[in-house]
Design a protein that fits this description.
By secondary structure, the chain is α+β, with helices and mostly antiparallel strands. The protein has 6 helices and 9 strands, in the order αββααβββαααββββ. The strands form 2 sheets. A 5-stranded antiparallel beta sheet has the order 5-9-8-7-6. Strands 1-2-4-3 form a 4-stranded antiparallel beta sheet, covered by helices on one side. The longest helix has 23 residues. This is Enterobactin synthase component D.
């Protein structure tokens, strides 16, 4: 970690007054890219933290619940830390017309938050699409819902028989990986698609989970196309990330990352 990056993270934690904790940078296995993850404590959230962290609360969130503003603040704090870690300018990242973050033209990224976790995967290259997701490890009813709503019979059989990870961890990881895949591919597919459009056929290996498309999403995204989702598993959460190249004839415009489809299990707009 460079000295300027370390200095910024120290200042970020100090100015957040206990709202942000455990902010760390992770290697992504992509060139000129970084993943920043942290925890946020809603009990420590106050409205003046936007000023303390030099971030703007958009007018569109003025009537939102405080937890939504807290999630937005945590996500934008991770995004700024990621851009600074890449040596990039870190302007405000506004919400676009479709609810997606509008990234600077020279970069690409994705933001996520869930249950007190927030993360940003950013690339210092605007010729990519990015996806990232963080999930608390599921158990009980949440685990049953994931298995029922986001996996097919073949995937459930694989989760049960494989030995690389405990079944609950792999189920949570698969859910997260499908969320990440959706975020990264939506700008190319330009349509919503559900969990059944991607399938796990082999167990995790070398920090990657390979998903195959079960149907063509568009001409450039054919059936059976494989995608290796990077992942990291901690004691109580997992996060996954993916970057895919823009099409050669696709114009590089900010704001083409996406909000979640309502058909997805966790549709609480984690990208904004």
């Amino acid at each position: 970690m460079s000295t300027p990056t370390a200095t910024h993270l120290i200042a970020l934690l100090a100015h957040s007054r206990g709202f942000l904790n455990d902010v760390t940078l992770h290697d992504t296995d992509y060139a000129n890219a970084v993943l920043v993850h942290g925890r946020f404590d809603f009990e420590s959230y106050t409205e003046n933290l936007f000023d303390k962290l030099a971030l703007r609360c958009p007018a569109s969130l003025s009537t939102a619940l405080p937890i939504r503003r807290a999630e937005f603040l945590a996500g934008r704090a991770m995004a700024r830390a990621a851009l600074l870690a890449l040596g990039q300018a870190a302007p405000e990242i506004p919400i676009g017309p479709d609810g997606a973050p509008l990234w600077p033209r020279y970069s690409a990224g994705s933001i996520t938050h869930a249950r007190g976790h927030s993360a940003c995967f950013a690339i210092a290259d605007g010729s990519w699409h990015a996806g990232v997701d963080v999930e608390a490890l599921a158990s009980g009813h949440a685990l049953e819902s994931i298995l029922c709503m986001t996996t097919n019979a073949a995937e459930r059989a694989l989760i049960a028989r494989q030995t690389a990870l405990p079944p609950a961890r792999l189920a949570t990881l698969l859910f997260s990986a499908k969320e990440t895949l959706f975020k990264a591919l939506y700008p190319l597919a330009r349509r919503f698609f559900g969990f059944d459009c991607a399938e796990l056929r082999t167990g995790p290996a070398n920090g990657r989970l390979r998903l195959h498309l079960t149907q063509a999403l568009c001409r450039e995204l054919p059936e059976h196309e494989p995608y290796d989702i990077r992942f990291n598993i901690a004691e109580d959460y997992v996060f996954t990330w993916l970057a895919v190249r823009r099409l050669q004839d696709e114009s590089v415009q900010p704001g083409q990352s996406i909000r979640h489809s309502a058909s997805f299990f966790n549709s609480a707009e984690p990208t904004a």
